[in-house]
Amino acid sequence: MNLELVLILVVLTNLKLLGSSRLGSSIRTVGVQGLLLGLLPLVAGHDLTARVWLLAAGGAVIKGVMFPWMLMRALRDAEVRREVEPFVGMLTSILIGIVALGASFWLGHRLPLPRPAGSLLLVPVALSAILMGLFLIVSRRKAVSQVLGFLVMENGIYVFGVGVVQETSLLVELGVLLDVFVAVFVMGIIIFHISREFDHIDTDRLSMLRDWKP
Amino acid sequence: MMAFVHILFALVLAPLLLGVINRTKALFAGRNGQPLLQLYYDLAKLLRKGAVYSRTTSWVFRAGPIAGLAAVVAALAIVPFAGTGAPVSFAGDLVLFAYLFGLMRFFTVIAALDTGSSFEGMGASREVQFAALAEPVLFLALAALARRTGSLSLSGILGAVTPSEPVWALVAVALLVVLLAENARIPVDDPNTHLELTMIHEVMVLDHGGPDFAFILYGAALKLWVLGALLVGVVLPGENILLSLVAMLALAVVVGVIESTMARLRLLRVPQLLVGAGALAALALILVMR
Q: Helix and strand tally (H, E) in chain B?
C-alpha cells in the first residue's frame, strides 16, 4: 500500500458518494473512506512513532466505525425513505465532481507547501474532498446526506493535516477528531428530533419555518 | 510478420470468444450450454442461405453489414497484440480506431432506419444515445494512455505499458465498461433477450438474414476481439503470444461472469454507468496531466 494508491481510493470513494442514490450505501462509502484515512498516517512516510499509530487507530475507529454506526442508527430511528433525493442529479453531480477535481489539481499546484509533503497528490486530494463535501451539503435534500457532506469536508482537512503531521501536534489532531465526533453525535440526535417533529428530514422545507405574514 | 499472425488469429478465433462467454454463462446457470463452436456453425449455416430483402429497403440496407464488417477489419489492422506492433501504425491512429467503430455503428443504424420499422428505429436511437456516452470514455482513456506514454499511436502506447501504476488500473476499468457497452453485453444490453422493449443492439439487426446476418455476427465477434485486444494490451503487456491468447479467453470468462452475476441495468441507469466510467478515465487523465 503506498500513499498515492490510498489517496486515489479516497477520490474514488468521493466520486462514488456523488453518484450513489441510496443513503445506506452512501454511509457505508463514507465508512470505507474513514478506514482509508486511518491507513493514511501509516503510509504517509512519517516515522512510525506511537503518536502516528495512535492517530491512525483513532482515525480508523472514529471515522470508519463509529460514524457509520451512529448515522445508520440515526437513519433507522428516523424511519424515512432511504433515497438520497438530490437537488442536482447523479450524472450532473459526478460531472461537477470531476470539474472540482480538475480545479483542485490546478489550485494545488499554485499552493506549494513550505516543506514537501509525502506526495504531490496530497494537497489536490484534500482540496477536492473539501469541494465535493461542500457540494454534497448544498445539493442534497436529506439531513443525513448533509452530515455526510460535512464528514467528507472534514476528511479533506484530515488528509491535509496528516500530510504535515510532523508539524502539527498530536493534541490538535485528536482535538479535531473529538470535535467532529461530538458534532456527528449531536447531528444524529438532531436528525432524530427533526424527523419526530416533522415526519421527514428534508432540510429544504425548513425554509418554511418563518414568521407568519398575512 | 508476427503482426499478420495476429490478424490471422483474430479472424479465426474471434467467434470462439462468444462461445466461451456463452459456456461460462451456461456453467453459472447449471446448463450444458451451446457447443463452444456454435457461432462457427451458425456462420456456416447463414452463409449458405440466401437473403430476403423487404421492398421498402434500399441499397443502404444491403451496404450496412458489409461496411460494418469492413470497418471492424480495418480497426483490427490498427490494434497491436502481444507486444508486437500492428501492421498499420501512425501518429494519431487512435482517433481512427475510435471512429472506425463509429463508422460501423453508423452503418448499422442507418441500415436499421432503412427498414422503415419504428421498432428498429427505437433500437437505433438507444444505440446512438449510449454510444455518444461511451465514445468520450474511450477517448479520455486513450488520452490518458497517450499522455502517459508520450505516444499517439496504439502500437506505441501498448509497447510502453507499465501496469503497476494506479493510472493503468483506472484506465483498464474504464475500457472494460466501454467494451461491455460497445459490444452490447449485459449491464448495458442483453444479447439474449428478445423482449422487444428492452433490447438495443439485437433489435437493429432483426431484418437482416442469410449472409448479411452472418457478416453482422462475425463483425460483432471481431469487435469484441479488437476491444479485448486493447484491454489485454493495457493489463498484460509482454511479447508472449500464448499468454495473451489465454488472457483473451480469460477476458471472455470475465465477461461471462459479469453477465451471470449482474442484472441488466435499467435504461435510465445506463448513462450513470458510462459517466462513472468516464469519471475513472478523467481521473486517470488528471493524474497523468499533473
A: 11, 0
Helices B241-261 and B166-182: crossing angle in degrees, nearest 10, is 60
Closest of B4, B2, B46 to residue B217, by C-alpha = B46
pLDDT tops 80 at residue A208: no
Chain B (131-190) residues lying within 8 Å, Cβ to Cβ, of chain A: 166, 170
Q: Which of B184, B148, B204, B162 is nearest to B259 (CA)?
A: B184
User: CA–CA separation, B162 vs B289, rounded Å?
Assistant: 17
pLDDT tens-digit readout, A129-145: 999 999 998 888 888 88
DSSP assignment of B129-194 equals HHHHHHHHHHHHHHHHHHHHHT-SSHHHHHHT--TTSHHHHHHHHHHHHHHHHHTT-TTT--TT--
Range of A64's domain?
A: 3-205
Answer whether residue A211 is part of any domain.
no
CB contact at 8 A, B58 and B122: no
Residue A191 in any domain: the answer is: yes
Residue A213 inside a domain? The answer is: no
Interface test with B, best of A5, A7, A12 (most B CBs within 10 A): A12
Task: State pLDDT tens for residues B219-242.
Answer: 999 999 999 999 998 888 877 888
Q: How far apart are CA B96 and CA B78, in angstroms?
A: 9
Residue A210 resides in a domain: no
B275 contact A CB<8A: yes
Cross-chain residue pair B290–A15, CB shorter than 8 Å: no
Residue count (chain B): 290
In chain B, which residue's Cα lies nearest the Cα of A1?
B166
Residue A86 three-state SS: strand
| Burial status of residue A1 (CB atoms within 10 A of its CB: 0-12, 13-18, 19 or more) | exposed
First-residue to last-residue Cα distance in chain B: 39
CA angle (B265, B266, B272) in 5-degree steps: 75
Does residue B26 contact residue B33 with C-beta atoms inside 8 Å? yes
**A8 to B287: CB separation less than 8 angstroms, yes or no:** yes
What angle in degrees, to the nearest 10, is found between the helix axes of B118-149 and B270-289?
Answer: 20
